[in-house]
Design brief:
Structural class: alpha+beta
Number of domains: 3
Largest sheet: 5 strands, mixed
Shape: globular
Strand order of the largest sheet: 1-5-4-3-8
Helix content: 25-40%
Oligomer: single chain
Number of helices: 22
Number of strands: 13
């Protein structure tokens, strides 16, 4: 295992005057706006931590960290059985434009492969937890801005990971009847023919809602209350049961039976050794990135009938028969065989062609999304090779527009509301009143989907969407809690591998060199080109001066080879445009009489589009 000491690098932050000012931005320069969330400091979890530990909040230099981890394969397609787990620390004191910048990511551990650490991850995290405990007590540090010594404190306020890694890091099971980490008591899970589904979102509706008395959802009336969370005492009681679980495989270890009164915890994570961990309101973030990806794949797989991804099968139709709902979709007996009626949530071949043709015709601004036309298969009836960001764009923007006019109106309305939900949830600036409205709207959206799709369509990933507005109120914008910046950082580490026989050593050596160069580049002035002041990817987004006159300083840059064309008929239009849009010409116009200008303007043939 590669351990990169955390304390010296946190102390090094305060060796630069400019960085010291940025570290204190969240308290000294941030201007809170009522009803808006722009930064984690606007979230309820940050404010609650400040109320409980006022001494920590008094000094703006005390650092709040996010712990992020995920496994990746350093060999790419060359090997499918290798999993390496780096552990990153993300400081949230910085301004929003610096918070999740890759250069501010601090790698504390590099857990080697070949396999996922699973329960053994606590053994690897011990050096890091010891540093967290020391940072909570305080570490003497010199402030370059004030040139005085002070005690630096730091705390981990939450963790960032995908859903399987949540189980690895927290010690809680994320599969089965208690897979939802928010529904501790009486979850929405239900056993069907070949899986456990998560239906019954009518429980989140008001008691007097008419849908609670309807039997079209699962054949029953819904009178249950929404699932509840454990109290702090009940949670500690659950953890007490698994406190003696040891990492690794032992011959005396036996499989624990899952109790009916609560979820099964695999072990007690070492993060509970931190004195403030039990008082945090948000310990583990739900990853919106992977939730969007899974929901998008469920929808597309069911619509297009993709093999292995469609949620409409024989068992799905038998589930409907078992519940006694949607009799028009039940299997039809035909002698010794059965036929499957066409479902409204599946597309015919003509509908598939129209849907894929629409995707191929969509054009995006540069850098907004990839070319979806390359994901359409050769027969023009299916999709393949979709990336996570492609699913992000499809779910929020494209699918609702693509199915309109192709499928039933109730399907279009449900998908449009779902896309609008994620679109507003992923905004850079969140509003509390909008989040409260989303919190009330998402149960209705999921209930509409329950009326359309079979029960097998709803697994825990789709159910987790109902808890996303609540987490956004606690955390702030989702950009500070999803996996996009972490995945980009993992790609950078993967490119560091030069020696395939020693991938961990290659990454460690290249990471230390890159970090040293990054720290040194922060001391240069702005006139020295570094990775922090490089020109943007799109040159038109940068202020580019073209010529001396302001009319030519538009900053736009065309693509392709230049060509010279004489526009005889448009010459007068160009002259008129320069005379009316160039401030430098105004002093010369004053010497010309107004009547002369009027005559010249009348003689110019001006197009209405100019």
């Amino acid at each position: 295992m590669q351990h990169f000491p955390l304390i010296p690098r946190l102390k090094r932050i305060f060796s630069s005057k400019r960085i010291v000012e940025e570290v204190q931005w969240h308290k000294l320069k941030r201007k809170p706006v009522e009803n808006e969330l722009n930064h984690p400091a606007d979230g309820e979890a940050w404010k609650d931590f400040d109320r409980k530990y006022g001494w920590f909040a008094e000094d703006a230099r005390n650092i709040r960290l996010g712990l992020a981890t995920d496994g990746f394969n350093p060999f790419g397609k060359m090997s499918s059985s290798y999993s390496m787990w780096p552990v990153f620390l993300i400081p949230y004191n910085f301004p929003p434009w610096e918070c999740v910048e890759q250069s501010n990511f601090i790698m504390g551990l590099l857990i080697p492969g070949r396999e996922c650490p699973r329960k053994d991850i606590d053994v690897f995290l011990e050096p890091l937890v010891e540093e967290f405990l020391e940072l909570w007590k305080g570490v003497p540090t010199v402030d370059a801005l004030s040139e005085k010594k002070f005690d630096l404190h730091a705390a981990v306020i939450w963790c960032i990971h995908d859903y399987p890694a949540l189980s690895t890091l927290s010690g809680r099971v994320t599969r089965g009847y208690y897979a939802c980490v928010h529904c501790d008591k009486n979850p929405c899970s239900k056993r069907i023919r070949n899986k456990i589904c998560y239906i019954g979102h009518r429980r989140f509706l008001p008691r007097a809602h008419p849908w609670r008395r309807s039997k079209v959802f699962d054949g029953n009336v819904e009178n249950r209350e929404k699932p509840k969370k454990f109290t702090t005492d009940e949670l500690m009681e659950q953890l007490e049961r698994v406190k003696d679980v040891r990492p690794g495989k032992h011959p005396k270890s036996k499989k624990r039976k899952r109790g009916k009164e609560g979820p099964c915890w695999k072990q007690r994570s070492c993060l509970w050794d931190l004195p403030y961990w039990s008082s945090l309101k948000l310990r583990h973030n739900l990853d919106v990135m992977h939730i969007e990806k899974n929901i998008c794949e469920y929808i597309l797989g069911t619509f297009l009938g993709t093999a292995g991804k469609s949620k409409d099968g024989i068992n799905s139709r038998l589930d409907l028969e078992d519940m006694g709902i949607r009799k028009h979709l039940h299997l039809i007996r035909d002698g010794d065989s059965y036929s499957t009626p066409h479902a409204p949530y599946t597309m015919t071949k003509t509908q598939k062609e129209h849907f894929c043709d629409f995707l191929k015709s969509v054009k995006f601004p540069d850098g907004y999304a990839s070319n979806l036309a390359t994901c359409v298969t050769a027969d023009g009836c299916n999709l393949q090779g979709l990336k996570t960001h492609d699913c992000h764009i499809l779910l929020q923007r494209i699918i609702p527009a693509a199915v309109r006019g192709i499928m039933h109106m109730d399907i279009y309305e449900a998908l449009a509301e779902l896309g609008n939900f994620f679109q507003q949830l992923c905004a850079k600036t969140l509003k509390l009143d909008v989040l409260e409205r989303l919190k009330a709207d998402i149960p209705i959206i999921l209930c509409k989907l329950e009326k359309i799709f079979p029960p097998s369509f709803f697994d825990v990933m789709l159910h987790l969407a109902i808890h996303l507005p609540e987490e956004a109120i606690l955390r702030g914008p989702v950009q500070y809690g999803w996996m996009y910046p972490v995945e980009r950082r993992l790609l950078t580490l993967k490119r560091f591998v030069r020696n395939m026989a020693r991938p961990e050593g290659s990454i460690a050596e290249a990471y230390v060199a890159a970090e040293c160069l990054t720290i040194c580049s922060r001391y240069f002035d702005d006139d020295v080109e570094t990775r922090h002041n490089q020109e943007g990817r799109n040159r038109e987004r940068v202020a580019i001066v073209r010529g001396d006159l302001s009319v030519f300083q538009h900053g736009a840059d065309v693509l392709g080879a230049p060509s010279l064309t004489y526009l005889e008929h448009d010459y007068e239009k160009m002259v008129w445009f320069v005379l009316n849009n160039c401030p430098e010409v105004e002093p010369y116009i004053e010497y010309v009489s107004p009547s002369t200008i009027f005559i010249v303007s009348c003689n110019l043939v001006i197009s209405p589009n100019v």
